Amino acid sequence: MATTLVLNGKNITLDADPSMPLLWAIREVAGLTGTKFGCGMAQCGACTVHMDGQAVRSCVLPLSAVAGKHITTIEGLESKPAKAVQAAWVKLQVPQCGYCQSGQIMSATALLERNAAPSDADIDAAMNGNICRCATYARIRDAIHEAADTLKA
Amino acid sequence: MTTRLDLPELQQPSRRTFLKSAGVAAAGLLIGFQWIGSGGRAMAADPAEGTFAPNAFLRIGPDDSVTVIAKHVEMGQGAYTGIATILAEELDADWRKVRVESAPADAERYANLAWGKMQGTGGSSAMANSWMQLREAGAKARAMLIAAAAAAWNVPVSELTTREGVVHHAASGRQASYGSLAAAASKLPVPENVTLKSPEEFRLVGRQAPRVDAAAKSDGTAQFTLDVTMPGMLVALLQRPPQFGATVKSFDASAAKAVPGVVSVVQVPRGVAVVAQGFWAAKQGRDALKVEWDDSKAEKRSSDAMLAEYRQLAEKPGLPARVEGDAATALAGAAKTVSASYEFPYLAHAPMEPLDAVVKLTADRCEIWTGAQFQTIDQANAAKTAGLEPQQVTIHTLYAGGSFGRRANPGSDYIVEAVSIAKALGANGTPVKLQWTREDDIHGGLYRPMYVHKLEAGLDAEGKLIGWRHRIVGQSILAGTPFEQMMVKDGVDHTSVEGAANLPYAIPNMSVELTTTQAGVPVLWWRVVGSSHTAFAVEAFIDEAAQAAGQDPLAFRRALLAKQPRLLGVLELAAEKAGWDPAKPLPKGRGRGIAVAEAFNTYVAQVAEVTVDEKGQVKVDRVVCAVDCGTPINPDIIAAQMEGGIGFGLGAVMHSAITLKDGKVEQNNFDGYQVLRIAEMPKVEVHIVPSGEAPTGVGEPGVAPVGPAVANAIFAATGKRVHTLPFLSQGRLA
């Protein structure tokens, strides 16, 4: 069965089981591997993508639920906040093992797109669903502030 | 042309050196792995025409590209950047042109020099064992490039200098890039001797060279095993038994095979594998699979029952791990005694990337793609499983999405599973990816063991520590592994007692004892190994002893560490930077705690500040960390590893536990097995002790002191001691 959606700005039809989680459709059918598998039950955020601009967990979202939706993955980030977040991630040397960072960056970008100047508490609230076992959390906080500052400038 | 670097003969380390440096084994392994050394293998990639590849660690291309070949896995700890920094320093390379490539599995050329002839990463040893080896590799290459320029320009070598990938001749103003000299340099002999830089000449070491992997890990392009795909590749999920030690009695694959996309269902030694065209089909197939298990040899106890047994065992003497003076007499005659027990749960490593490996197996060859941490052992285990010789096994080491010790295991469990599935499928060259789910990971065993510690201390009338007894009860990590012979001595597993048996405090009468228990739960080292529990017990208890003596915890430790300058150094630095002052306690409801530990020859002290509210909710506000890891190679990575180690350790002591009910693991995923999240991450300050000593590792040691520093801070805030980990229950102090 085929599902049509807008993936990273392009119309795409994915021929897959409609109950397949979006994560696996993105990775194994569309071939975009930046989005990661961490828990399969929306506990860790490694699979975070944007659906119509909102951060969602693609590991629990069936393909059938995204028909006609705009899905953005780490490969499709283009907005100014997204670019600022990625630049801040490199500048502050956030990643360690790096496996969770696509999801972290997707959550951080969605935060900055709705809140241009988040406080530490805003960051903690928005990012608490994204686990990093390397515990890069302090730098994630700093990098989001850094990105917010560069967007203001 | 490839010229081999003339490295000094690998010295088999003495047991003592080895134990100090590794926490993972060496010489004992040589017995099992002596097949290594039957000739080198090809370079990581055959050098192209005009490429300068003077040794196994470096290629310089005619385009000025500098490729450093990393023998250690990059799993977050910064090994790739550190390795490249060391080599690029002596080479005088242009850092912007440096890239890192993973070495093939080859113990002949890529051994961890701390372990003998075995390639692998662990025990925070990557920088320590690479330091002289890669400096020499870089310096010899630089000498050859200079020699090539000297010959071309007909000038003496002594008139040439190098900087950022260019050879300069000041007198004539001539210069040449390394790339332009590569072809000529590759025809020259490798020099016998070379002078290394003095520390004042360092341009990269001690600076903040940016991580080589930061960009790829910020745009989704970094390749993990999860991301490996190749034409015709199948994905396998393995149904393992619900209890450790159970085996397959029978299975019914009909429903699994009915799932569209499922290709095959095969039994292998560790369970039943469902093999499909993709993850989702494999997952649905496995969910539909019916397996009957034979639990006659399974571990069926609950962890509560095991804990009760451990508590009783802690009341009895164990095997001696350290004896100084006469602890029994000192304790009996002490003016004051204090005692406490500490209980530690099983812990899963739970790296973000669930375990995975891709295998392509044919009748005479096995090719593996994975974030391998023990390449030599993995190669041997894969070969044995496949029925091949180790030389027929190729390992492509990829980025590992975390490990924390999990991917370094003597049985190579996940790799052996993948190879056994490929074999069951007919060894027909079809690539197959074994993918673990998070539930597989949490249920998958090889946990940090559960332990009970009981400590007793005796003080004289002046409050001086005169006696110390420390009993440790728990499973051995190394018993039954190839490492046993090397690291289990007279019944004492070094990894059970490190951090306790080498207690640095000057106490005249001491007895450290170990009782090793038997359980069917597989166990393994977990970040910082023994010190993940011993440092907690020692540093929490020394605080209790200080309290009994009526002394400030810092002053009490200081007096006992007079002959431990590096421990004392970090202790004083952390205290100073944190503003430690017994005359100025924090306001009510807040507290400050201190702890210090040595692990893998790195010294770390931390001061934690906590707030505890009336409901018993704990917030760790700040951790000030001082670290002495010898010559700091990359201060920013050192800081990052301290920050990360603090967060990793904090999550464990606050939340994490694996428990068993009737032999079945009670946690399934990150809902039940909780770890640190961002809202709980304290502010962290890291201070690095300037040092000219040889560098030591930073991946693990930062984990050791955070638990006891926080526990001691909770005491300062509440008057309550933490004796059971994790210390939160339903989000509150238990």
From TrEMBL, chain A:
MF terms (GO), sorted A to Z: 2 iron, 2 sulfur cluster binding; metal ion binding; oxidoreductase activity
CDD domains recorded: fer2
Entries under InterPro entries matching the protein: 2Fe-2S-bd, 2Fe-2S-bd_dom_sf, 2Fe-2S_ferredoxin-like_sf, 2Fe-2S_ferredoxin-type, 2Fe2S_fd_BS, Beta-grasp_dom_sf, Diverse_Oxidoreductases
SUPFAM superfamilies: 2Fe-2S ferredoxin-like, CO dehydrogenase ISP C-domain like
Pfam families (alphabetical): Fer2, Fer2_2
Domain 2Fe-2S ferredoxin-type: 1-77
Top-rank lineage group of the source organism: Bacteria
This protein's UniProt keywords: 2Fe-2S, Iron, Iron-sulfur, Metal-binding, Oxidoreductase
PANTHER family for this protein: BLR6218 PROTEIN, OXIDOREDUCTASE WITH IRON-SULFUR SUBUNIT
Protein name: Isoquinoline 1-oxidoreductase, alpha subunit
Species for this entry: Pseudomonas indica
Lineage per the UniProt record: Bacteria, Pseudomonadati, Pseudomonadota, Gammaproteobacteria, Pseudomonadales
Automatic annotation (TrEMBL), chain B:
InterPro entries noted in UniProt: Ald_Oxase/Xan_DH_a/b, AldOxase/xan_DH_MoCoBD1, AldOxase/xan_DH_MoCoBD2, AldOxase/xan_DH_Mopterin-bd_sf, N-heterocyclic_Hydroxylase, OxRdtase_Mopterin-bd_su_IorB, TAT_signal
Aldehyde oxidase/xanthine dehydrogenase a/b hammerhead domain mapped to chain residues: 219-297
Highest taxon of source: Bacteria
Name by which UniProt lists this protein: Isoquinoline 1-oxidoreductase, beta subunit
Pfam families, A to Z: MoCoBD_1, MoCoBD_2
Gene Ontology molecular functions: oxidoreductase activity
PANTHER family: ALDEHYDE DEHYDROGENASE
Source species of the chain: Pseudomonas indica
